[in-house]
Design goal:
The chain is an alpha/beta fold. It contains 22 helices and 18 strands. The strands form six sheets. A five-stranded parallel beta sheet has the order 11-14-17-10-18. It binds adenosine-5'-diphosphate, magnesium ion and zinc ion (ZN).
């Protein structure tokens, strides 16, 4: 007898509908899975066999063939265990095809028949909605995540037996309620900019970056607060929208980083990969493939501390995603795209010993050493960082006894106002500061500002890309200033944030 059960498999961040067909017929006892299964899907045979027996159903010794359609697309992961088991039970007359009709089933089976959490259930639930499924059968730890898709009832099931009992009506499960605790508008965080003393220029640069969604590089000696400042950037960014929260949650779900029982992620991501990270950990790759740090930072902040210490291939690999807001990761069967629209915050010392330009310590580096150190961060990468900033060592008094800084909430109010101004202008068809991802039209730059920009570009030998960065920064400054027009003062301030174009390779 032939059975068919609806399921899905991951392709990048999305799920592809899969029809699991099972035929059990006469012949030598065997169990074959066809339709481009990966190794984890192949191993379903052993898990399904044991789970069926240990759930006190029968696994008759006959010829069993599982076909995963469409046959030309790779199927990955252990999530097809459950639909395969249901198909076997239907094909062997232990469950009616009618009971399963319209349901989408997904989940990994343990040998004892219990259902385990799997990655990527949120995109699978979206696929179920697109298919018009009457319900989703998912492992209990994945249910809240699946219920983010509100239009389809989600059934949280602990075991294979519970699935059958639900389908046959022996013991119905009530659908998991969609939990929509919206984010508190004033997202509470233990971190606050108030605890950063002094450093007015760095605080200002962070505010500009937040307003424009721009990338920042902080250059300064150890212990001046670079890491402190970077960690506080998410506290001055607006809350995620629901659409953004769903995107972020999908990424963490597919990456297998969603804790059991959790629903939407409302916090902006803040990722701090170590400088030893491999290219595939940073950019994405491996089996699947899985999203890398740049995708885990989507809609949030990617913090690269000690920027020059990162591997050369990693730094070069950042260039394209910084430009495009997404990354294409190759795999055996085609390539997948992952979104990667993040704010980059990088920190570095001004030289190898760390004390170049420090009033309190003497730099022991030779000019050649300084140059080699700075050269590890290539010009093309620097060009894609909007704000370069020297963070000096403040007087000890200012650090110990200075007044606390302005709170994150107050700064964030200004950031939100600036972003709203930009959004209104965009809605009216004006020019938009789209951060590192393109700035269109210079129609709102006044003539004086253009003059300042032109002469500075010549004097500092700014390339086209760096000049564009200056305009993006000036755009954000004007928005913070409540001005749709970019004036000379905005450009003049923006030009101060090209420290490395000015000082690269030269001793201070
Ligand atoms: N501007 C500052 N305001 C308050 N504390 C600071 C400041 N700068 C440094 N500190 C103190 O020094 C420690 C080290 O700062 P950190 O941010 O790690 O410096 P960096 O990253 O520049 O090396 C912080 O944990 C904090 O206690
Ligand atoms: Mg640090
Ligand atoms: Zn030095």
């Amino acid at each position: 007898m032939l059975a068919a059960v609806m399921s899905a498999t991951l392709v990048g961040l999305d799920a592809l509908p899969v029809s699991v067909e099972v035929d059990v017929g006469p012949g030598l006892p065997s169990f074959a899975i066809v339709g481009l299964p990966d190794a984890a899907v192949q191993e379903a045979r052993e898990r399904v066999r044991a789970a069926i027996r240990n759930s006190r159903y029968e696994m008759p010794p006959r010829r069993t063939v599982v076909n995963l359609a469409p046959g030309d697309r790779r199927k990955e992961g252990p999530g097809l265990d459950l639909p395969i088991a249901l198909g076997v039970l239907i094909a062997t007359g232990q469950l009616s095809q009618e009971a399963v009709r319209g349901y989408l089933a997904i989940g990994e089976l343990a040998l004892d028949g219990s259902l385990r959490q799997i990655p990527g259930v949120l995109p699978v639930a979206q696929a179920g909605r697109a298919l018009g499924a009457r319900g989703l059968l998912v492992p209990e730890p994945n249910a809240v995540e699946a219920a983010v898709v509100e239009e389809v009832p989600v059934y949280a099931l602990p075991t294979l037996r519970a699935v059958i009992d639900h389908l046959t009506g022996a013991r119905r499960v009530t659908p998991t309620a969609a939990t929509v605790p919206p984010p508190l508008p004033a997202q509470t965080s233990s971190l606050d900019l108030a605890s950063v003393r002094a450093q007015p220029a760095a605080r200002r640069a962070l505010e500009i970056a937040a307003a424009g969604g721009l990338n920042v590089l902080l250059v300064g000696p150890p212990g001046v607060g670079k890491t402190m400042l970077a960690r506080r950037l998410p506290t001055i960014l607006p809350a995620l929208s629901r659409v953004e929260a769903v995107e972020v949650t999908k990424i963490y779900s597919v990456a297998g980083r969603l804790p059991a029982g959790s629903g939407l992620i409302w916090q902006r991501p803040f990722r701090t990969p170590h400088h030893t990270a491999s290219a595939s950990a940073m950019i994405g790759g491996g089996g699947g493939p899985r999203p890398g740090e740049i995708t885990l930072a989507h809609h949030g902040v990617l913090f690269l501390d000690e920027l020059p210490e990162f591997r050369h291939d990693v730094l070069e690999g950042l260039r394209q995603p910084l430009e495009d807001g997404m990354v294409v990761v190759a795999r055996v069967h085609g390539a997948v795209r992952f979104p990667a629209r993040f704010m980059l915050v990088a920190a570095m010392n001004p030289c190898a010993c760390g004390y170049r330009g420090d009033a309190h310590r003497t730099c022991t580096c030779t000019p050649g050493q300084v140059q080699r150190y700075l050269a590890r961060v290539s010009g093309p990468l620097l060009d894609r960082i909007d704000l370069h900033l020297e963070v000096p060592r403040p007087p000890t008094d200012a650090l110990l006894a200075g007044p606390p800084g302005e709170s994150s909430l107050r700064v964030r109010d200004r950031v939100i106002a600036a972003r709203e101004r930009a959004a209104h202008r965009a809605a009216r068809g004006g020019s938009i500061p789209t951060g590192p991802h393109g700035w269109r039209g210079i129609d709102t730059v006044d003539d004086g500002a253009l003059g300042v920009l032109r002469s500075a570009a010549e004097r500092l030998m700014l390339g086209a890309r760096a000049t564009e960065r200056v305009l993006c920064v000036a755009r954000a400054i004007a928005d913070l200033d409540g001005s749709d027009h970019i004036r000379s003062a905005h450009v003049a301030e923006a030009l101060q944030y090209r420290a490395l174009d000015r000082s690269a390779g030269r001793p201070p």
